[in-house]
Amino acid sequence: MSTTIETTATSLLRFATAGSVDDGKSTLVGRLLHDSKSVLADQLEAVEHASRSRGQDAPDLALLTDGLRAEREQGITIDVAYRYFATPRRRFILADTPGHVQYTRNMVTGASTAELAVVLVDARNGVVEQTRRHAAVAALLRVPHVVLAVNKMDLVGYAEPVFAAIAAEFTAYAASLGVEDVLAVPISALAGDNVVEPSAHMDWYGGPTLLEHLETVPVGSDPSAEPARFPVQYVIRPQTEEHPDYRGYAGQLASGVLRVGDPVIVLPSGLTSTVAGIDALGRETDIAWAPQSVTVRLTDDLDISRGDLLAAGPAPAPTKDIEATVSHLNERPLRAGDKVLLKHTTRTVRALVKEVSYRIDIDTLERRSGAEGLTVNDIGHVRLRTAEPLALDTYSANRRTGSFLLIDPADGTTLTAGMAGEAFETVRGDDAPDAPEEEDWV
What we know:
Blueprint: E1 12-19, H1 25-35, H2 41-53, H3 69-74, E2 81-86, E3 91-96, H4 104-111, E4 116-122, H5 129-140, E5 145-151, H6 160-176, E6 182-186, H7 210-216, E7 228-231, E8 234-236, E9 248-252, E10 257-259, E11 263-267, E12 271-280, E13 283-285, E14 287-289, E15 293-298, E16 309-312, E17 319-328, E18 339-344, E19 347-360, E20 367-369, E21 379-390, E22 403-407, E23 414-420
Parallel strand pairs: 1-3, 1-4, 4-5, 5-6
Antiparallel strand pairs: 2-3, 7-16, 8-9, 9-15, 10-14, 11-12, 11-16, 12-13, 12-15, 17-21, 17-23, 18-19, 18-22, 19-20, 19-21, 22-23
């Protein structure tokens, strides 16, 4: 069975779009759907009718993605809009994320599972603060591929020097964040230049169109190259006449490959056993790979419950002390001393924010004091203490088991998205003082 990177027509690419307000992101998504023949006739008819009612002669393709009434009235994107479409070469799940600064947290949601991010800029404005913020979020979330779509080239006369200057500035900034794969594409979403079809106005550009790149960029990974991580979601004990002694652990394989006969360690307890059997879709199988949902049976009857992690290969050491880079998503600030819930895979534990070590200045990538805490859309570094040990990989090594959420224990709202370890190796300076010695607070 092949577990190599997918490049066939059956492969699936999850990608997210981001851009500042009025950069034309929704129009780009609409153009991409329209020109790739992924819009149903009744959808297009509805868009044409809505456009005419607003006094527009041509269909406003942005309406294909701006589905909320408030979005259509204001002409902006507020919520993350997910769209599925396909071409003969590949299937796609697109997350269209908002451009307003106040909705940057929604980009974190949309890009958290993406393998590619399309960052739009207006050719007239170039790289702005929100562009840098979106690039930083993509780097923070370890999105492996980034496309810079320089939009509205028709409004700058399709000038190559304008495109080249913007591409050079963005590429340099992305490189400082550790983003290695960046492709810049000059486009006009309104006119359709270089979105699906090559532009007749920019013969100086020899690269792929946006869709061509989306269809050919390598996606996925080789699960056998990653250590196996299996968060237990549910313990199955039917205790029926047919299955009197059945004990299985159900969940989704977060990474790697599990085979019958593999030795595993149960975290955080440290107990060890061997995979005795794997059940998938009601049938026994000898192998499972991420992201399959399966039931795993072990040779030993161990005390395992929801939230435990079965690991094969090099395993992280369980700890109560966590250092992480975080993106704060809530209007309520996050400050040292806050008591929160920490959700990691299928495990939720009580935790204490011991310190907000620093905030990251998106423009300069310098560290700023975290003494005042983190406000909405801030990216920073925190130290946490949990009530129970957790087995976290570093986020750079494993996006699934290196991530977590901080939750308000009072009402269950999500406060912060966390990535274990340091996010950007290039972050400079440190205005935050060293943390004082503290006792066990949790």
